[in-house]
Design goal:
Elements (H helix, E strand, L loop, with lengths): L6 H4 L28 H26 L6 H33 L15 E7 L4 H15 L6 E7 L4 H17 L5 E6 L6 H13 L5 E4 L5 E2 L1 H13 L3 E6 L2 E2 L5 H12 L1 H12 L10 E4 H7 L18 H11 L3 E5 L5 E3 L5 H17 L11 H36 L20 H26 L3 H6 L3 H34 L18 H7 L1 H17 L1 H6 L1 H8 L1 H8 L5 H6 L3 H4 L3 H14 L1
Parallel strand pairs: 1-2, 1-4, 2-3, 6-9, 7-10
Antiparallel strand pairs: 4-8, 5-10, 6-8
Helix pairs in contact: 2-3, 2-9, 2-14, 3-9, 3-13, 3-14, 4-5, 4-24, 8-16, 9-14, 11-13, 12-13, 12-16, 13-16, 14-16, 16-20, 17-21, 18-20
């Protein structure tokens, strides 16, 4: 095909229209069903989180040991308890998942039922590397060609730059020719790209959705095995009220130090947390925007997105559309479920910390928009929880930052303010300022244990049998990898905290994030670029060092993990953006690294051939 395709020629790449109406949903509507299947797991989650948070709050109050607490002490107590509750949700979910997986019988592998239900595989792309997209599709096509099922592929390009479109046309023309005997491939370019990704998918539904019973959303770096795809279709066929089934994709293909650490955490800690979340969400689950199968008619009838009142960043088109679409499906009477069972569902992850922060800026804006939706009438209680937790996942960073600031102010007050030993009331005994150091140390250790509980359970689960230890190259490698990942997570956490706090503040000040293309692979950058990108992180670290050092070395030691991360943020960002050395790659290797699945091996081979 000629690279200089005209708009009329571009239309030849798509099938004849099969329209399906997708009206925008009102935020005021009745709810049609209640989900009672997951109450056991929900009660367990609530009890675990409540018990842990109450215990933390009581003991922190005892540590402060004040008879008449000041407003600053109460703020510190309140924000610290809020941060602990957020941590406790993840730890409790991991514990529930660990118990459920440990008590469950090992499933007997079954062949996916053959079905001819028409299913579309959608790849919404926006200025992505077409070679990477083509390699993933070609690998999936080879896998699918060996069995039954009716699958068509749609590349839905929102790329607006004409030079980039020319490259896409050439690459996808070659891919179309290569797949002509295996799979039907359609490519559509959209202009303008109204409503971003959500608008891209909605345009497909209203134009072609009537011809397909189901569609599977995949990211540009996502792939799924044929067995998994057929199994998802078979599950949807067996359960006519199932509107959306979300898989838990495994992170693969990482090369940098930063991405390797994320990939290790996802492989060994993620499955337990996912199993716990799947248990307490039940049929009122969530949607993560990709690697999920959706019933087309249900999505069209129930999940049309309205525009939010007001202007961006909090008004206008909904950026984090997935959570909202899941809530609307549940409100419409459909089941939305997360399947935590291991399956051949894969995706990539941001290669560097900078790329993660860029993505977080957009996600923060979209998730904070959920605060306008969480009170919409008719939503299920769990849908409201999911929306609220999505917003809180970014609000937690400024709350943590506020906690640290208040802690420093308390230390400053204790050092330089004149203590009041007698209050306004008449008393023969002074009120001595008291701080219980032993209880503080015990609370600190207990908090660390809760923070690292998902990691500990994940390693225990991965090393539960001799066969598993052999597959993962021994218990020592697992423990070493977990320790290294924990160290990297500790030094990176304050950098992400400042980045997310800045994103939330920018949103509250009315700054729109827009929609920038996502970088899928790392590139070399000079150190001065990192200095410019992380100058404010380092400035805050320096300021905190000076203030804490002026107060006491105890305060400096207390905040040293945060201070070191901020002071060295530019070197850390640069070091973790580099390709991982061999020893680190081995230590942080995942099962997919140690024994690559055929689908991933085929994609890598195709990418290698395309690069030559």
């Amino acid at each position: 095909m000629d690279q200089q395709l005209t708009p009329d020629a571009e239309r030849l790449w798509v099938p004849a229209p099969s329209p399906l109406a997708m009206p925008p949903q009102a935020l005021r509507a009745p709810r049609r069903r209640r989900d009672r299947r997951a109450w056991g797991a929900r009660v367990a989650l609530l009890l675990l989180v409540a018990a842990g948070t109450i215990a933390f709050g009581v003991n922190l109050y005892a540590v402060l040991s004040v008879q008449t607490p000041t407003w600053l002490q109460l703020v510190f107590w309140f924000t610290s308890t809020l941060c602990f509750a957020w941590i406790a949700i993840g730890a409790a979910s991991a514990l529930i998942g660990f118990v459920l997986l440990s008590s469950a019988r090992k499933p007997v592998p079954e062949c996916a039922e053959a079905t001819e239900a028409a299913t579309a595989l959608l790849f919404p792309v926006y200025r992505e590397d077409p070679a990477n997209v083509a390699a993933g599709i070609a690998a999936m096509a080879r896998d699918l060609s060996a069995g039954a099922g009716r699958f068509d592929v749609f590349i839905l390009s929102d790329t607006q730059d004409e030079a980039h479109r020319i490259v896409e046309r050439a690459t996808y023309a070659r891919l179309t020719a290569d797949l002509s005997s295996r799979l039907r491939l359609h490519v559509r370019w959209r202009a303008p790209n109204t409503a971003k990704k959500a608008g891209n998918i909605q345009e497909w539904v209203t134009t072609h959705g009537g011809a397909y019973r189901y569609f599977v959303i995949l990211d540009a770096d996502s792939v799924m095995t044929a067995e998994t795809l057929r199994g998802l279709v078979a599950t949807m066929e067996r359960e006519p009220r199932l509107g959306l089934l979300q898989t838990v994709p495994r992170l693969v293909g990482s090369q940098t130090v930063f991405a390797r650490a994320q990939q290790f955490a996802s492989a060994y800690y993620g499955p337990l947390v996912a199993a716990g979340i799947a248990a307490w969400q039940g049929d009122s689950g969530n949607y993560w925007g990709h690697n999920a199968i959706i019933r087309t008619a249900a999505f069209a009838a129930s999940a049309g997105l309205p525009d939010l009142p007001g202007k961006p960043p909090l008004g206008g088109h909904i950026l984090s559309h997935d959570f909202v679409e899941a809530a609307l499906l549940v409100r419409g009477g459909w089941h939305v479920r997360l399947t935590a069972e291991p399956c051949g569902s894969y995706e990539g992850c941001p290669p560097t910390m900078t790329d993660l922060l860029v993505r977080d800026r957009r996600w923060a804006q979209g998730n904070l928009q959920h605060l306008k939706i969480v009170r919409a009438s008719g939503l299920a209680a769990l849908s409201r929880v999911n929306l609220a937790l999505g917003a809180w996942s970014y609000l937690a960073s400024p709350v943590w930052a506020l906690t640290l600031v208040v802690g420093v102010l308390l230390a400053f007050e204790a050092k330089f303010a004149d203590p009041t030993y007698f209050g306004n009331e008449i008393s023969l005994f002074p009120k001595w300022p008291v701080f219980d150091a032993e209880k503080a140390l015990a609370l600190f250790i207990a908090t660390l244990a809760i923070v690292h509980l998902p990691k500990l359970l994940g390693i225990v689960w991965a090393a539960r049998s001799a066969e598993s230890r052999q597959a993962n190259r021994g218990l020592g490698r697992l423990v070493g990898g977990a320790l290294l990942e924990s160290l990297l997570a500790t030094i990176i956490a304050p950098i992400l905290m400042v980045g997310q706090t800045a994103a939330v503040l920018a949103i509250l000040l009315g700054r729109d994030a827009g929609w920038s293309p996502q970088r899928r692979s790392a590139g070399e950058s000079a150190f001065d670029i990192y200095l410019r990108q992380y100058r404010w992180h380092m400035a805050w670290g320096l300021l905190t060092t000076v203030i804490c050092g002026a107060i006491s070395w105890h305060v400096l030691a207390w905040l040293s993990p945060v201070i070191l991360g901020l002071l060295a943020s530019a070197p850390i960002a640069m070091a973790t953006a580099r390709p991982a050395p061999v020893w680190l790659s081995h230590l942080l290797a995942t099962p997919e690294d140690l024994d690559p699945p055929p689908l991933l091996a085929a994609r890598e081979a195709l990418l290698h051939d395309a690069a030559e």
